[in-house]
Design the sequence.
């Protein structure tokens, strides 16, 4: 019933929006055009920047590219082709720049994206001056406000549809996982670079097409009009004000701001700046979560993590993991020095050693966080040396982190779901079951950032298991647990082994090593100094010296 | 000598870039405020110098004595009244950065609005120390040379203060990790406010000095903000010496491109150099390697 | 998804409704007691610098002058002017929307143009569609004749880029034939439409007049460090230095030329030379500098205008587009009075066809363009006299070579 009402309301709204030009005068239509064009830009901006939190100031670069494409081609080519060309050029530039820039993060990306917009503008100017011998472009077209409005409205619908589908798809969750913690996402099998790039290109396409649609309105396009950096700033401000984290957030920033600008321009043309500035400061101080924060504590639907099924027992001869002479140097320091060992399927192998002996670095080599300086690593017969973390994760090698890494903004369930997104192995358990397994069943919808430290560790393990891994690397997963928690933890790891998961654990808790590991490796100063059954190894004099501090410590 | 003719004017130009960027190094690099109203503060100081010079005949160099303390106090107030609250509110650095971008965007308009009412939109320019001096056969303007010397002196002095004093060490600790700094007993809000205010003082120096040789109006702040951001990022956020070197480098490159390639490409060269530096060393010329 | 978004959507609709209500407080047109004139001008943004010297003060002065005289005569009564003003924030889109607002919401009787070529072209189609006369004063474009044909309501007042460059070339050619200068010219221009069009037209015109361009470069807009450029220009040993520049760079070029003791026989800089700021800053050193524009400073009407401008706005007008802006407003007023009713189509036609008496003399547009436009002026004893086109009445004799910088 309520769904039907909502449907009717939606249809009525759509009809009203489509018919808008027919019942308002030119001014309201112009206002509508402003709202729409900023809505598209801000929504497209938030599509990429919302989940990833990359504050991009390159909006106007793509907008300007679109406007210029229209100005150059608009009078000779047919209009749909011009729009397609704008989209294609925008996508191409986004792809080139995205490839080189998306590895930057935080403030560096902010400034880089701004520099990019300026660089493109300067190059366009230079081209126009020296090759085309004229800077401004004239674009006489008979496009009326109505037609312009409908084009923008269509594009608005498209951007919302795209955003909606993206949010529901696994790429949407993957993008948010990347934004929350890129490292954790990569180790959960998410190809961060490719997904970021794809969405960056997608959002750039919308911006370019908007530029192309708007260009004929201004008759005359020059670089300072097309690449006006204020557009980038306005878009960022509107999207952030509305709330960049959700699909309809940006539009809630666009509408009030366009109207505020308009009312202020009209009523106080001479004090516009001051009043706007003050109102703006007040809004920021009083509305910490954006306009959408006022309306609803938004939540995203969570795709259930993977279909349930049983894993085929993958029969294989030979060891599951084979490390052969792996080394890693940082400058002159050999953090891992010619380490070789093998792990058979179903084993729990402990790696112990004093602080700074290279244990975590070794795990980083195995999981792909670092590439070894030399040596080879085989996993299930495949050479994984130098593969990207997400590739290794998808092969079935999962890990947890010494300094716990959860995707703080995502719920507990989403953290687990994110890891199952691109897993190729059929899932052995649903996300809920995994959370049950680690004892987080009650926390399903809690944001991961609100969990206690211990629960975050549990969540990390559940996330690792969601990859349906054959091998799990635990980096001091038991550290900091109290005696009773420790007991549960040890039992949990034992259960994993019984389910057929192979485990490598770096650990300082010797009771756990004794209880769980059939085999352990002792490292000191990057090298393996002893290996064997825990009890024997731990009484080895070299090991004792290494722990207690020998002559070379 | 073409080489000297490129390097010296380039250094002088670069000195100006460094000068306008030093304040932002402190505000952005240390206090973690991405201050979009930075350029407006600079223009405000320039207007102050203009008023004092054309109205009362006060030399801009003397005007510094007035402008700098005023700017420090105003920026400190700005920090205490607005920014400190946002810093407390923000969960993490990302949230703080977004909030500071938004709120300083508002401040930008407010400050610009005040200047528009006071001075209107038209251009202003006056001449002070616009006299030639010949250095190694190359003619330079004294006022620009003064700016370069100030930039070098301030850059070095701030660098020494940051590295050789207790307060400086505390300030640097905040720049690296505010959370950890708090744990070792550093009063983070107070020190951040201090760094922000000092940054404001440096902006005022920049504004007063560039007003001696640049034509400006109330709407031009954003130009300076952007130039300063480029220099700061290139030099490595929070690294005063880096900003100095990056500024000088930009100046020399721009001049070289103007003389040897095409003056039309100077700005393109700036941004290309900037992007190249970021791609090769994402944390800037002198930034710490990413963890 | 749908379930969580529905309240959001509803609230959006509600917000939109409030918004629409907010924006509806537009006044309605009252009985014709006064003439409502609106304009949107760049009070902020990059165009504010130009708008607040050339355009805005003249709008204010003109309204003050007209209202002091009782208003615009319409039929047998005089109607005072009421002003509606907006800030277009130097943005094309804002400018277009402001025009729509002025026409549809405020229902003004006339709309005055924004500042700059870009904004005038942006609002051109809208003003044309709405049928308002468009006095595109501060737009310099070679497309002006074509635009005037396309938009019958529009008129162009500053000449085309070609006219300006040709006027300059003609003057220089004359100086060369008199043996006052040699054949070498160094030309620099700002890299935007204005600079490019003028330098392109100049290149041709100078060549035709028998000059050699020994240096010819552009520089990015906003650049105030032009010493490298000047160094190379000096090395080219020009007889005349020509810069198609904008105010900040005009100032910078002059200042840096003085530093480098660069004393070509002719020193011509672009927009900004005619500003009072230029004279104020360079004082005696401005003497002999040539630039775009100029006016017949001995004309009593202009002397009177200068005094009124100073009294009303507290500053002097620039000596290029200011007086023309004011004159265009006088033309508007006289056209309204001649037509005798608020028939905008008839008034636009009258502006194009009529002859008017203004502070810059008798004006008659040809094909929507003001033809008699000064292209070169020169500071002589603290006044910016017009030099070229030399055929126009009131053209002064140039002082060449320019006195050495002091």
Sequence:
């Amino acid at each position: 019933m309520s769904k039907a009402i909502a449907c009717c309301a939606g249809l009525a709204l759509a009809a009203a929006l489509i018919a808008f030009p027919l019942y308002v005068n030119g001014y309201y239509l112009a206002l509508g055009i402003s709202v729409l064009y900023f809505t598209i830009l801000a929504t497209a901006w938030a599509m990429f920047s919302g989940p990833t939190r990359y504050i991009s100031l390159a909006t106007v670069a793509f907008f300007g590219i679109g406007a210029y494409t229209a100005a150059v081609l608009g009078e000779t080519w047919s209009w749909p082709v011009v729009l397609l060309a704008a989209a294609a050029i925008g996508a191409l530039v986004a792809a080139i720049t995205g490839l080189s820039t998306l590895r930057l993060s935080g403030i560096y990306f902010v400034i880089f994206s701004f520099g990019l917009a300026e660089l493109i503008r300067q190059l366009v100017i230079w081209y126009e001056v020296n090759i085309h011998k004229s800077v401004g472009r004239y674009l006489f077209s008979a496009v009326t406000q109505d037609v312009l409005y409908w084009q923008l409205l269509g594009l608005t619908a498209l951007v919302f549809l795209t955003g909606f589908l993206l949010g529901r798809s696994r790429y949407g969750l993957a993008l948010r996982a990347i934004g929350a913690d890129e490292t954790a996402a990569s180790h959960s099998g998410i190809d961060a670079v490719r997904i970021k790039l794809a969405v960056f290109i997608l959002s750039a396409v919308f911006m370019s097409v908007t530029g192309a649609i708007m260009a004929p309105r201004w008759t005359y396009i020059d670089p300072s009009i097309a690449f006006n950096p204020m557009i980038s700033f306005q878009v960022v401000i509107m999207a952030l004000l509305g709330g960049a984290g959700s699909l309809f957030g940006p539009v809630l920033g666009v509408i009030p701001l366009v109207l505020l600008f308009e009312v202020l321009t009209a009523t106080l043309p001479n004090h516009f700046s001051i009043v706007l500035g003050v109102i703006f400061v007040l809004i920021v101080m009083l509305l910490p979560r954006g306009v959408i924060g006022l309306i609803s504590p938004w939540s995203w639907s969570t795709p259930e993590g993977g279909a349930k099924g049983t894993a085929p027992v993958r029969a294989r001869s030979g060891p599951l993991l084979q490390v052969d002479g792996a080394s890693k140097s940082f400058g002159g320091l050999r953090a891992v020095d010619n380490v070789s060992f093998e792990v058979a399927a179903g084993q729990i192998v402990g790696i112990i050693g004093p602080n700074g002996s290279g244990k975590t670095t070794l795990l980083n080599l195995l999981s792909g966080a670092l590439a070894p300086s030399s040596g080879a690593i085989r996993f299930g017969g495949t050479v994984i040396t130098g593969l990207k973390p997400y590739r290794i994760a998808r092969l079935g090698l999962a890990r947890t982190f010494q300094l716990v890494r959860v995707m703080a903004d995502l719920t507990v369930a989403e953290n687990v779901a994110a890891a199952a997104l691109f897993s190729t192995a059929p899932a052995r358990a649903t996300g809920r079951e995994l959370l049950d397994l680690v004892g987080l069943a009650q926390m399903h919808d809690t944001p991961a950032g609100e969990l206690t430290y211990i629960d975050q560790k549990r969540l990390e393990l559940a996330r690792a298991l969601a990859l349906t891994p054959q091998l799990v690397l635990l980096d001091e997963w038991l550290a900091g647990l109290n005696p009773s928690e420790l007991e549960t933890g040890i039992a949990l790891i034992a259960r994993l082994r019984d389910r057929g998961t192979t485990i490598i654990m770096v650990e300082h808790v010797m009771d756990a090593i004794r209880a769980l590991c059939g085999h352990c490796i002792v490292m000191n100063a990057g090298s393996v100094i002893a290996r064997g059954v825990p009890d024997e190894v731990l009484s080895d004099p070299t090991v004792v010296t290494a722990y207690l501090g020998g002559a070379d410590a | 000598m073409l080489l000297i003719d490129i390097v010296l004017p380039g250094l002088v130009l670069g000195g100006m870039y460094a000068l306008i960027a030093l304040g932002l190094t402190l505000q952005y690099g240390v206090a973690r405020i991405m201050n979009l109203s930075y350029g407006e503060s600079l223009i405000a100081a320039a207007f102050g110098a203009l008023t004092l010079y054309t109205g009362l005949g006060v030399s801009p160099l003397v005007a510094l004595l007035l402008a700098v303390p005023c700017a420090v106090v105003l920026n400190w107030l700005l920090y205490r009244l607005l920014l400190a609250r946002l810093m407390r509110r923000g969960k993490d650095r990302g949230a703080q950065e977004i909030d500071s971008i938004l709120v300083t965007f508002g401040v930008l308009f407010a400050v610009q609005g005040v200047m528009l009412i006071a001075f209107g939109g038209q251009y202003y320019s006056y001449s002070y120390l616009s006299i030639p001096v010949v250095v190694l056969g190359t003619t330079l303007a004294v006022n620009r040379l003064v700016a370069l010397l100030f930039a070098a002196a301030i850059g070095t002095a701030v660098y020494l203060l940051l590295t050789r004093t207790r307060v400086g060490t505390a300030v640097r600790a905040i720049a690296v990790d505010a959370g950890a700094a708090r744990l070792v007993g550093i009063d983070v809000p107070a020190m951040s406010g201090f760094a922000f205010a000092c940054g404001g003082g440096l902006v005022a120096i920049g504004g007063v000095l560039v007003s001696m040789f640049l034509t400006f109006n109330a709407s031009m702040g954003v130009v300076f903000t952007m130039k300063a951001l480029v220099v700061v990022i290139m030099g490595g956020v929070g690294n005063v010496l880096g900003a100095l070197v990056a500024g000088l480098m930009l100046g020399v490159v721009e001049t070289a491109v103007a003389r040897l390639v095409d003056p039309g490409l100077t700005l393109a060269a700036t941004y290309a150099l900037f992007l190249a530096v970021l791609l090769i060393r994402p944390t800037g010329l002198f930034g710490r390697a990413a963890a | 998804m749908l379930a969580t978004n529905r309240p959001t959507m509803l609230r959006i609709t509600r917000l939109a409704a409030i918004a629409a209500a907010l924006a509806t407080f537009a006044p309605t047109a009252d009985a014709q007691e006064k003439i409502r004139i609106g304009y949107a001008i760049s009070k902020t943004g990059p165009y504010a610098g130009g708008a607040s010297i050339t355009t805005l003060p003249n709008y204010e002065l003109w309204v003050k002058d007209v209202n002091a005289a009782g208003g615009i005569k319409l039929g047998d009564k005089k109607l005072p002017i009421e002003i509606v003003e907006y800030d277009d924030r130097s943005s094309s889109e804002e400018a277009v929307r402001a025009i729509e607002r002025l026409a549809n919401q405020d229902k003004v009787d006339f709309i005055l143009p924004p500042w700059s070529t870009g904004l005038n072209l942006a609002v051109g189609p809208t003003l044309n569609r709405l049928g308002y006369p468009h006095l595109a004063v501060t737009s310099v474009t070679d497309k002006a004749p074509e635009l005037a044909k396309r938009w019958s309501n529009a008129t162009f007042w500053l000449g085309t880029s070609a006219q300006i460059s040709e006027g300059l070339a003609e003057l220089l050619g004359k100086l060369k034939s008199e043996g006052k200068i040699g054949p070498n010219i160094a030309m620099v221009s700002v890299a935007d439409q204005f600079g490019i069009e003028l330098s392109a037209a100049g290149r041709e015109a100078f060549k035709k007049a028998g000059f050699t361009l020994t240096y010819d470069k552009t520089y990015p807009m906003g650049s105030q460090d032009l010493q490298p450029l000047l160094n190379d220009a000096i090395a080219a040993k020009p007889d005349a230095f020509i810069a198609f520049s904008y105010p900040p760079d005009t100032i910078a070029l002059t200042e840096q030329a003085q530093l480098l003791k660069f004393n070509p026989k002719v020193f011509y800089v672009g927009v900004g030379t005619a500003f009072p700021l230029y004279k104020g800053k360079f004082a005696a050193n401005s003497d002999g500098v040539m630039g775009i524009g100029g006016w017949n400073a001995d004309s009593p009407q202009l002397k009177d205008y200068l005094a009124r401008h100073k009294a009303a706005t507290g500053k002097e007008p620039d000596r290029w587009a200011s007086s023309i802006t004011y004159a265009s407003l006088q033309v508007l007023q006289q056209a309204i009075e001649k037509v005798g009713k608020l028939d905008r189509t008839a008034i636009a036609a009258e502006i194009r066809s009529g002859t008017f008496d203004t502070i810059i003399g008798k004006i008659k547009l040809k094909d929507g363009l003001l033809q008699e436009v000064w292209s070169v002026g020169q500071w002589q004893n603290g006044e910016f006299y017009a030099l070229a086109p030399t055929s126009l009445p009131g053209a002064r004799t140039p002082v060449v070579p320019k006195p050495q910088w002091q």
